[in-house]
Amino acid sequence: MMENYPPRLEPTVDNLSKALFIVNKHAKTAPNPKFLYALKKATLLLMIENGFAEKKGLHFSRNPKLSQQHSDVLITCGDYQFHLPPTKEDRKELPHLGNLDNGIRNPKTYLRLQQAKALLIEYTGLTERKESASYTSKNYHSPFTRTGSTYFS
Predict the structure, then answer these.
(1) DSSP-derived 3-state class of residue 83
(2) Structural domain boundaries, residue 28
(3) Is residue 90 part of a domain?
């Protein structure tokens, strides 16, 4: 009976946009956000390709890298706006929109991360690899033990 809970979402522009919002929100605080950001990027690029989203222009980033100002691509899909790093073509072709308007916010969205990820994975075909923790016995070597020598003789 619990097989369909939470219910499967259809890949509509509205559902994809909501799922992107949730995945992006969780990626900002996740301990290992790589997959979530990869899922966001793959979804946005596919939505642009399918005509569900549109690149509007470049915004100055809120978080300059190494104190260097840089820009991000503003992408709109449905009632939502997202940012991605620009390509060389984006820098040449898109207009620069200046600073990000802090008054513009995405709508409040309530969706489970599990549901959002499932929809975006289904839409993009991306799969999440389960990586082992970096501190497992295979990868972790104590600095106090060495093969063939001793520190305290």
Answers:
(1) strand
(2) 7-124
(3) yes
